[in-house]
Specification:
- 35% of the residues lie in helices and 21% in strands.
- It has 327 residues and is α/β, with parallel strands linked by helices.
- The protein has one domain: 3-Layer(aba) Sandwich (UDP-N-acetylmuramoyl-L-alanine:D-glutamate ligase).
- Strand 6 (99-102) and strand 7 form a beta hairpin.
- Helix 6 (204-211) crosses helix 7 and helix 8 (265-278) packs antiparallel against helix 9.
- It starts with 11 loop residues before the first strand and ends in an 8-residue tail after the last helix.
């Protein structure tokens, strides 16, 4: 088992993308009818960093952004949230930052993601070799960084160097089919990454994908928990989550809210869960606090801007009647 008490002694280092999110404004507007948009920092890894920082932690992001106005927007946003961007490089040419156009509505929700020539996939071995991993408490990675080269090779090198420095590896499955050349390539790469990591978080669809069949997803999570990872969180949407660790299975529910949109929950859960573990909460409470963070974000516009502070999370937990029973 990993020693979670070390997690807030140093900053977290997080590998993955930063991008721009556009939300049709006002909330409820369909994209095709929009005449104005609200912009904010996006990208799963950047969002996780924001979530942790807002809950009292410190993070550093490792990625590449485009050498243009959109890339500079992302850099400015990272600065605004206090995220260390020492290891964020700018790349020129035809590489572009990811852009997500996301509606703040549940009915007929549309999210359109632009990832052609993604700049973040240009993170390479030189970027990883420049990191002094002993300066950090843990390495956080999302599955998206493994979808293309040179980012894939660089990420696995980061795993090796972080492990050599004694850092636990935290992996958010974050499977996005549109980023991968084939499902077979994704499945084998995810399995390799899963075998290396100490904490693995994903939803039932993602674990089912890794297993080769949706109905085998929970068995895959159990297999990873038994053989490789110290903690595996198997999320099931409205049915809550099953957390596997040390031969035990912890079932937890969700915090029902009137959702404004379906997106952002995963990044918020990860940030809240990891920050809570690092703050000394036991495993079940850390999962519930992560679930509360997810509930807060889906009820607000945006993702990074919607991440709760410690005070907002405490107020939500004090006022909410409590989580549902886990499945």
């Amino acid at each position: 088992m990993i020693d979670t008490s070390q997690l807030f002694q140093k900053p977290f280092v997080c590998i993955g993308r930063a991008g721009m999110d556009f939300y049709p404004d006002p909330p409820g507007t369909k994209t095709e009818h929009a005449t104005q948009f609200f912009s904010c920092l996006g990208g799963s890894s950047a969002n996780i960093c924001v979530a942790i920082n807002k809950l009292g932690g410190e993070t550093a992001l490792v990625t590449a952004v485009s050498d243009d106005a959109i890339g500079r927007f992302c850099l400015n946003e990272l600065d605004r949230y206090g995220i260390d961007r020492t290891h964020v490089k700018s790349v020129g040419g035809e590489f572009r930052n990811s852009l997500a156009v996301v509606e703040s509505r549940i009915e007929d929700h549309q999210s359109v993601i632009y990832r052609n020539g993604a700049a973040d996939f240009q993170m390479d071995l030189d970027d990883i070799n420049a990191i002094e991993f002993s300066n950090y408490s843990a390495l956080i990675s999302t599955g998206t960084v493994l979808a293309a080269e040179p980012s894939r090779t660089a990420t696995f090198k980061a795993f090796e160097l972080a492990q050599a420095a004694g850092l636990p590896l935290i992996f958010d499955l974050d499977y996005r089919p549109y980023s991968w050349p084939s499902a077979e390539d994704a499945a084998s790469t995810y399995s390799r990454a899963g075998r290396a990591c100490d904490i693995i978080i994903g939803n039932d669809v993602e674990f089912g994908f890794m297993a080769g069949a949706y109905e085998e997803g929970l068995n895959k999570a159990r297999e990873l928990a038994a053989r490789d990872a110290s903690i595996v969180v198997y999320k099931m949407g409205e049915k809550g989550a099953i957390t596997l660790s040390g031969g035990e299975e912890i079932h937890t529910g969700i915090f029902p809210v009137e959702a404004l949109k379906p997106t952002g929950a995963g990044d918020s859960f990860m940030g809240g869960f990891i920050a809570s573990l690092a703050a000394g909460y036991d495993l079940k409470d850390a999962v519930l606090r992560g679930s509360a963070c997810a509930a807060i974000v889906v009820a607000r516009v945006g993702c990074s801007v919607a991440m709760p502070t410690t005070e907002e999370l405490s107020a939500f937990l004090a006022d909410h009647p409590g989580p549902t029973e886990g499945a």
